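In these records, each integer encodes one residue's backbone shape. Here is one protein:

___
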Amino acid sequence: MGREWGALLGLAVVMGVLGTRVSDLLVAAWDSHRTVYHVGYTVVALSPVRDPDIFVVLGVGTVGGLLVFFAVDARKHRQGLLLLIGAALFGGTVFQTWAETVSFFENLPWAVGGLVLGAVASYPRSTIPPLHSGTRGDFGRRWEFPYAGLWLYVLVVVVSLIGLVERYVPYRSPIVAQNAPLSRTAPQVTASGVLLDVVSVGALVILVAVFVDYSNEHRIVLVSEDRQELGRVIGGLFRQVSDPTPVGRDISVLRAVAQNRRSSQQKVSKPVTFAYAGGLLATWQTITAEPITLRRRDPSTIGERVKERQSPIGRLRQLLRWVAKTVIPGTLTAPFSTYGHIDRIDDADTIFFVLPASAFINASYLDQFEPGERGVEDEYLYRSRPRKLKPYIEACTQYTGDRSRTAVLVVTEGDLARRAFALDQRDETRTDVALDNGPFLQYVEESVLQLEGRERSCDVIVVDRPPGEMRGTGFESLARHL
């Protein structure tokens, strides 16, 4: 988190330096008395108010409204706070400069009108309602205002490019406003000034896009073929992180899986999502559980994507995609549900591949023995690795070489694994071993999952949440990977 704050702060400082240069460019462009200059005074002359101060105050209020709603966006609190601080400092300087020429206080209602206009332009694309109803009300609601950032970015791009044209393109304005006052003339054009302004505008446009598009959100996806165990895992995670209050749209489904009853409601039959943050400026953790059946070819496809991201050509493609994304932030971000299943997995920051222990351990054979009893035959106790679950382990293995992703094998039915471990160790006390115990995890990797070679590089976490238990065990370890 500290590194992200440092990067955002550094980005804001560089933007401030570039913004100072671009603001000088805009002043010089206005003093060049080109089309925008005369169109501005023509609009003032034709308007009912005929007071240029009103348009200035209205514009300042609109930008202020966009800044406020950008900062209110739950996923933009960090850079929104930095922008508000910068705007306050810059606004104070502007007010001191314009106080004698622009009547701010006399036109205060127009500033309020600008704030309202900024609010309308920032209309929320979506709100995520709270999962808890009743006395907790809307305290868990997450508000998002993506259009506020988009309009701020569009303003920077349009105003900066128009400023470049007005300042350096030699042409005579086709419109001449009769009411335009005589003002100072723009400074003389120099080659070094042109180059510096072009570079400043280009850099500012790109950095503002990065700044606006940044989102303090970490995406986690839980993938499994077993819908019952998938429900137990996301229900256990939901209980584990229930304070602070999670938010999400799938209220009825999550309530059912959180109750952990013996019913079909426990199953996750479609993507289920909830999100939470540990504070106003904390990273949002968005967790999605989805029943996905991986095919035999899918791990190879994932492996090809991982290799492509690490190759020079793949990095070039990522760069081009990033450049395209900076043109209008958010345009290449499709809704999660519209991706293909490989895209939905590969787009996450953390992937949990959920595997039931009963698929690898013969529970009916295990029930014939008391904990610590001798005479257990491994060939009957352990099942061969199910063919349908091989792609999940192979997919996790592919991600072990990807620094931009974290993949974990989550083994459910931890109590069953502990009973098998007690028989393997011939020690009845091992039935109470902690699920994050080192020798126990090694046993699960080698004997239960039968991991070999590169597969051993996969992180393994064991959880247990029998029907009827609300919170379960082992979810503390799982939550630490969020």
In short: The domain at 217-479 is CATH 3.40.50 (Rossmann fold).
